[in-house]
Design brief:
mainly alpha
């Protein structure tokens, strides 16, 4: 559950702190990487996926809404617009991943010292 918790923590804190440029995403990633407790690599992945999750959810919503209101053509256009959202969220996901790397390294070092 630690890895999934790290993704969820990153996603929720990214929503709450995303209004602070760069620092909010970095702090969300640090908290998510620490919650994942999988070391630096696992922390990076949890932070990255948590940061990317917002773009993926938005892409799904836009695709579904386009399909509901304009049929197949609307779903295709919504899907293309959704891909732009996912591509735009890659920068945020990378910043969250860097924060996750830091948080995961801190959690890994703390677990190493406790043994």
């Amino acid at each position: 559950m630690g890895f999934g918790l790290g993704i969820i923590v990153t996603f929720i804190l990214n929503i709450l702190l995303g209004w602070i440029p760069v620092l909010g995403n970095l702090l969300a990633g640090i908290a998510g990487g620490y919650a994942a407790k999988k070391g630096a690599g696992g922390g990076f992945l949890a932070g990255f996926l948590g940061g990317l999750l917002g773009g993926i959810i938005l892409a799904i919503v836009v695709t579904l809404l386009g399909g509901m209101f304009a049929g197949l053509a609307g779903a295709l256009v919504g899907g293309l617009i959704g891909l732009k959202f996912v591509a735009a969220s890659l920068i945020i996901a990378l910043i969250c991943g860097i924060g996750g790397l830091i948080g995961g390294a801190i959690a890994g070092k703390k677990a190493e010292n406790q043994q």
